[in-house]
Amino acid sequence: MTAIADVARLAGVSKATASRALSGRGHVAETTRRKVEAAAAEIGYIVSPDAASLVTGRTKNIGVVIPFVNRWFFGEVLEGLERTLLSAGYDLTLYNVDGAGPDRDRVFEFFLARKRVDAVIAVGVDLTERELAALERRDKPVVVLGGGEAGALGPARLGIDDRAVGQLATEHLLQLGHTRLVHLAGDGAAARPLSVQGLRRHGYLDAMSAAGLAPRGRAAIVETEMTMPGGYGAALQLLGQPGRRPTAVFAASDEVAFGAIRAAERLGISVPHDLSIVGVDGHEYAEMFGLTTVEQSPSGQGRAAVDLVLRLLGEGAEPDPLPDSGAPLPTRLVVRTTTMRAPN
Amino acid sequence: MTAIADVARLAGVSKATASRALSGRGHVAETTRRKVEAAAAEIGYIVSPDAASLVTGRTKNIGVVIPFVNRWFFGEVLEGLERTLLSAGYDLTLYNVDGAGPDRDRVFEFFLARKRVDAVIAVGVDLTERELAALERRDKPVVVLGGGEAGALGPARLGIDDRAVGQLATEHLLQLGHTRLVHLAGDGAAARPLSVQGLRRHGYLDAMSAAGLAPRGRAAIVETEMTMPGGYGAALQLLGQPGRRPTAVFAASDEVAFGAIRAAERLGISVPHDLSIVGVDGHEYAEMFGLTTVEQSPSGQGRAAVDLVLRLLGEGAEPDPLPDSGAPLPTRLVVRTTTMRAPN
DNA sequence: AGGCGGACCGGAACCGGTTCCAGCGACCAC
DNA sequence: GTGGTCGCTGGAACCGGTTCCGGTCCGCCT
């Protein structure tokens, strides 16, 4: 009921003209367009997206695969994606995929391979060759946001320069005179050098060795889950040990930093007088904690990913083919009150 | 390419039989079914959901409208919804709608009214009459999760008993002998008595007056944003005032409680010796903070909402028409180390 | 033996749009 | 005046499935 044929009949035109009038494609006289629109409004007509995409092959729907929704960064990205897609008239279908396993295969083989989505945005997940190939075969553009490095000819990638971020944060502490400076890294940082945590770790090492401080194995780098409890537990252990304590900590994310701050307080270590802490993210709670951090804009990254994907889909007049797809997204150091000059 | 007609041709049967064989509806001989399946596998056939839903009217897709994704409760619900829908073979289309405004209208009128979704799950948003009516008119089942009260004949509702939760938390503190006991409520608690924060506030008042403690206007209830910085700011102000401090705080959510804990520490007030704090949620960080809280299971609530919606859609043999849709979802008090007996 | 029911299969209609193609006036240029 | 272009419109094919309807064929009952 209320199909386009009804509209056409009521307006006294053919289905073809009605379609043209409503979709705005092709030539339609101004007066007939108005007639059709009036008829459509009168009977409350709305197009069937299924029918439309059946013939056009476009669904106006983007699949988003994301490993967590409840970690700040990812939630923020998701919001950015959603808002931007919505205002472009696109739907967002969510696939919460973490790690490997049958669920993940199901998503890629059953859900994403079908014609339901025009393109896929993967945030913070490394697609396997097989997964990429499957999508490629169906002509589905893929944009990867965060993690990994711009592959030779892989999918379009987007993100901040995590290695530079690690370097920047570490240099800030070095400039303040710290030398006993440990890195609270994300788990898997050493094992997966191209992951976000791996790159940040690498940046830390770069800065340290540039300063002539070969971080001795000991406990210069501690890996932990990138959450507040993760940072709390790791810092508790690190700072609770006897012997000379570090005077500064570079935490792989703000949430880890929050945990470390709390651990320090619990141990009676004063931040920043006895211990400087810097994080990365620009978490919405950073201000409350007074955390010095390297800010990024996850929602802005979401927006950028959508822009890119729409360009790949050929929307928006494409002024230039694929501009600056190499340039990393911006970050900046925000100094607050968790860092200060090293005690001498 | 690779339409069902190709499969049929390759298998030497008609489109009709191929469809029956693949979808499992109707009678098909075991041997032909195998032939068809083999043919489908050979050419890598996958159905076009658009074509299928065009004729069946079912999209296997559920719309979820949610005000935040980056608040713990909502993120957790979303994960629960996603996992459960996925395993039932449904897609989840996300609509991030906060408050009113043109964006919200757009979602309801443009996106949800179309035939793209079979049903709508609204979490933590109160649908207006108009919005409900629009969905009703298109025969789209609606399930509302959290907030509000079971309306007379409105949509199916689901959630915990927030008033009982407020009562339970308050009673715990009362039983420990606290009498100067303030409530850190969510913003809008007084103005919107049927909101989550409104109901929790009501539960607090119930328990107080049952204990003969008419909470004097003063500062017995302070409203604040239901986030960690919100709780931090409110507690800082509340506890920093001269005069007799409260000995216990009931925070409207765990995140508020975390903020309050941090504020207390910052002011040199010892938790729990000088101040007891209880929250509600069962946040994943609660254990780290040692927070006493009234736990709920948001992901479980997501699962329940999906079960309900699938039942409304007539999936799953519907054993009973609509069982116990009134019973609130479970909660329980978990006592940790932020609450203790009141000082005398 | 004849009738009946049920399993199995194919042809064709249909879901609701979009788009190709052809037709038709109107207008302009030669 | 005639041919060509252009704006507008309608008929019909088509996208890729599902399902109604009817026709065989077989087994079984009476």
Tell me the span between the first and last alpha carbons of chain A: 81 Å
Unreliable segments of 5+ consecutive residues of chain A: none
Q: Quaternary state, please?
A: homodimer
User: How much helical structure, as a percent, in the residues of chain A?
Assistant: 40-55%
Strand content of chain A: 5-15%
- Helix count of chain A equals 14
Pattern of helices and strands of chain A: HHHHEHEHEHEEHEHHEHEHEHEHE
Please, could you describe this protein's structure?
The structure is a homodimer of 344-residue chains. The model of chain A has no long low-confidence stretch (mean pLDDT 91). A six-stranded mixed sheet of chain A has the order 7-6-8-9-10-11, with helices on both faces. A five-stranded parallel sheet of chain A has the order 2-1-3-4-5, with helices on both faces. In chain A, strand 1, helix 5 and strand 2 form a beta-alpha-beta unit. The first copy, chain A, is of the alpha/beta class and 344 residues long. The first copy, chain A, folds into three domains: 4-47, 434 Repressor (Amino-terminal Domain); 61-159 and 299-312, 3-Layer(aba) Sandwich (Rossmann fold); 162-295, Rossmann fold (3-Layer(aba) Sandwich), CATH 3.40.50.2300. In chain A, 44% of the residues lie in helices and 15% in strands. The first copy, chain A, has 14 helices and eleven strands. Chains A and B meet through helix 4, helix 5, strand 2, helix 6 and helix 11 of A and helix 4, helix 5, strand 2, helix 6 and helix 11 of B. Chain A binds a DNA duplex (30 and 30 nucleotides) through residues 3-5, 13-17, 19-20, 23, 25-29, 32, 47-57.
